[in-house]
């Protein structure tokens, strides 16, 4: 079985303990590689390497940092097929999705920040005619980046790219469930000539390797994407240490569909926003609210198209939904389907595990599932499930749907479907989410602020905001 290795001080290394654990290919339900079970000593080594590398990397001209990062982006593009296959095997997603979304976006993340640093400017403030103030942004030091399993390389690079571009050195941990593409990425960094210690990747489990990163006193900032419960642990640990924190957490995103929408676009895009990546995208809409005059027509068409989706081998080009990322996660989603039944919901479509034959007979597959008849207040409609499961509910007025949409503890993303521009603006202003898409979904411009309100997180990624996060800001006032 292939052994994944840590990437510390420019070298691929075994964990200090020598211990590894298996990682599973979720489409076949069997281990296929070994992951370092890293702990505090590995993180200590990684932080030492990052500290040693920091002064030189921070002082490297932006154009030189940019050139190395662009080389890494080019290598990702060169290895598109290999990385897409690796992502699909590790995560369970259809290989065609990895090839069209995950891996191209990983390269785009790096290119975006590699070029952003060539166009940075600083603020200056003139105080009457007596003084000039200018703001200096200096890289903050060694930072920690911790990412989840749903979009592994995509989200790993979304954090690491701005940190490296800003001149920080990094200790990063991908999810234990999906470590493979971060490992392949470390090899590309070596090939591109990234100096030793600038990026260090420590593999392992959250409570050991992850916890050691967030607790380390030399780590000045933490950029985290993952569940709200883990975010709370990170905030509780890092807050009293006065570390800078960016937390991108869970969601329970509403889709608000008015009767005057472009029906075809609303249905086809809502199929995407419900089931892409098996519903394992923090931005997927899981609560669909449809204005009553359209409700029956929408439900009928949406159900027919859901039924037509192919759940199958992620390596098959015809597959729409691949495997769930893990057995544990599949069982969690199934438990919510049981809960929905207990809460009085009707399973209109799906609701069961899919048993494939052949190579994928032991894989973790679920039917895309539609549930109706639930109130917006029940647990199924309040808690993040993170699977191919949506609820559909009718509404009569704008005020009513706004109450439904805003009723959860989350506030990450929302979609609004209407041809009425005034209404689109009015509703967008009142939905408490950090990201609103009107008549589209997952239409991304990397310059825009990305993040959630309420328990969906604090801080914003994207654009120059992410670069600033990894810097210390200083005002210099010069009396004229
Ligand atoms: P988790 O919170 O379980 O894990 C995220 C990362 O944190 C993993 O690398 C995990 O390691 C690590 N971790 C776990 N415990 C600790 C700890 N005590 N200290 C430090 N690190 C720790 O999330 P999932 O991986 O399950 O990802 C799914 C979640 O991510 C969903 O809630 C989803 O909504 C959210 N998400 C949010 C996004 C956003 O942009 N807002 C985008 C994508 C996902 P390990 O894997 O070993 O447990």
Can you lay out the helices and strands and say which pair or pack?
Elements: E1 2-3, E2 6-8, E3 11-13, E4 20-25, E5 30-36, H1 40-59, H2 62-78, H3 80-91, H4 95-116, E6 124-127, E7 131-139, E8 142-146, H5 152-166, E9 169-173, H6 180-192, E10 199-201, H7 206-215, E11 219-225, H8 228-238, E12 244-248, E13 253-257, H9 263-275, E14 285-291, H10 292-307, H11 327-342, E15 346-349, E16 353-354, E17 365-366, E18 369-372, H12 379-382, E19 389-395, H13 398-405, E20 410-411, E21 413-417, H14 421-430, E22 435-438, E23 453-454, E24 457-458, H15 463-469, E25 471-479
Parallel strand pairs: 1-5, 8-9, 8-11, 9-10, 11-12, 13-14, 13-21, 14-19, 18-19, 21-22
Antiparallel strand pairs: 2-3, 4-5, 6-7, 7-25, 12-24, 15-18, 16-17, 20-23
Helix pairs in contact: 1-7, 2-4, 2-5, 2-6, 3-4, 4-5, 5-15, 9-10
The structure holds NADPH dihydro-nicotinamide-adenine-dinucleotide phosphate (NDP).
What's the quick description here?
Helices cover 40% and strands 24% of the residues.
- Give the strand order, joined by hyphens, for the main sheet: 15-18-19-14-13-21-22
The CATH fourth-level homologous superfamily of the largest domain: Aldehyde Dehydrogenase, Chain A, domain 1
Strand content: 15-25%
Number of helices: 15
Number of strands: 25
Q: What helical percentage do the residues reach? A: 40-55%
Uncertain runs: none
Kindly give the count of domains: 2
Silhouette: globular
Structure description:
By secondary structure, the protein is an alpha/beta fold. It has 2 domains: 2-249 and 456-479, Aldehyde Dehydrogenase, Chain A, domain 1 (3-Layer(aba) Sandwich); 253-444, Aldehyde Dehydrogenase, Chain A, domain 2, CATH 3.40.309. 40% of the residues lie in helices and 24% in strands. It is built from 15 helices and 25 strands. The strands form 7 sheets. It has a 7-stranded mixed beta sheet, sandwiched between helices. Strands 10-9-8-11-12-24 form a 6-stranded mixed beta sheet, with helices on both faces. A 3-stranded mixed beta sheet has the order 1-5-4, with helices on one face. Helix 6 (180-192) links the parallel strand 9 (169-173) and strand 10. Helix 5 (152-166) packs across helix 15 (463-469). The longest helix has 22 residues, at 95-116. The radius of gyration is 23 Å and the shape is globular. It binds NADPH dihydro-nicotinamide-adenine-dinucleotide phosphate. NADPH dihydro-nicotinamide-adenine-dinucleotide phosphate (NDP) is lined by residues 146-150, 155, 173, 175-177, 205-207, 210-211, 214, 225-227, 230, 233-234, 248-251, 282, 384, 386, 412, 452, 456-457.
């Amino acid at each position: 079985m292939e052994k994944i290795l840590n990437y510390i001080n420019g070298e691929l290394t075994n964990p200090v303990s020598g211990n590894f654990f298996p990682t599973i290919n979720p489409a076949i339900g069997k281990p296929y590689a070994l992951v370092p079970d890293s702990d505090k000593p590995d993180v200590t080594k990684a932080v030492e390497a990052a500290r040693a590398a920091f002064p030189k990397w921070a002082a490297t001209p932006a154009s030189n940092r940019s050139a190395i990062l662009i080389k890494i982006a080019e290598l990702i593009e060169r290895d598109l097929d290999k990385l897409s296959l690796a992502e699909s095997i590790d995560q369970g997603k259809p290989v065609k999705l990895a090839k069209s979304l995950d891996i191209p976006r990983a390269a785009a993340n790096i290119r975006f920040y590699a070029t952003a640093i060539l166009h940075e400017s600083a603020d200056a403030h003139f105080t009457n005619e007596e003084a000039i103030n200018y703001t200096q942004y200096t890289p903050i030091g060694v930072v920690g980046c911790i990412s989840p399993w749903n979009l592994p390389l995509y989200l790993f690079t979304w954090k690491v790219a701005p940190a490296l571009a800003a001149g920080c050195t990094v200790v990063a941990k991908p999810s234990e469930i999906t470590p493979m593409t971060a490992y392949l990425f470390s090899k590309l960094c070596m090939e591109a000539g990234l100096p030793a210690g600038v990026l260090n990747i420590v593999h392992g489990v959250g409570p050991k390797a992850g916890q050691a990163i967030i607790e380390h006193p030399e780590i000045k900032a933490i950029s985290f994407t993952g569940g709200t419960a883990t975010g709370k642990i990170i905030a509780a640990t890092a807050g009293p240490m006065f570390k800078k924190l960016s937390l991108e957490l869970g969601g329970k995103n509403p889709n608000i569909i008015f009767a005057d929408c472009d029906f075809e676009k609303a249905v086809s895009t809502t199929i995407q926003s419900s089931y892409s990546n098996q519903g394992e995208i923090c931005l997927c809409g899981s609560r669909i609210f449809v204005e009553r005059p359209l409700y029956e027509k929408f439900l009928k068409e949406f159900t027919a198209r859901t039924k037509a989706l192919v759940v199958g081998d992620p390596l098959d080009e015809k597959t729409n939904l691949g495997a769930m990322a893990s057995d544990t996660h599949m069982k969690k989603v199934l438990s919510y389907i049981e809960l929905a039944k207990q809460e009085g919901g009707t399973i209109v479509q799906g609701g069961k595990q899919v048993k494939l034959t052949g190579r994928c007979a032991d894989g973790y597959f679920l039917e895309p599932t539609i549930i109706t008849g639930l109130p917006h207040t029940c647990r199924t409609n309040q808690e993040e499930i993170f699977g191919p499961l949506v609820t559909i509910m009718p509404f009569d007025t704008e005020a009513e749907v706004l109450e439904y949409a805003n009723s959860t503890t989350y506030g990450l993303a929302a979609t609004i479907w209407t041809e009425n521009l005034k209404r689109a603006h009015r509703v967008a202003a009142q939905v408490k989410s950090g990201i609103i898409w009107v008549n589209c979904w997952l239409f991304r411009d990397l310059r825009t602020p990305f993040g959630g309100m309420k328990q969906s997180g604090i801080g914003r990624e994207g654009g120059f905001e992410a670069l600033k996060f990894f810097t210390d800001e200083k005002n210099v006032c010069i009396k004229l």
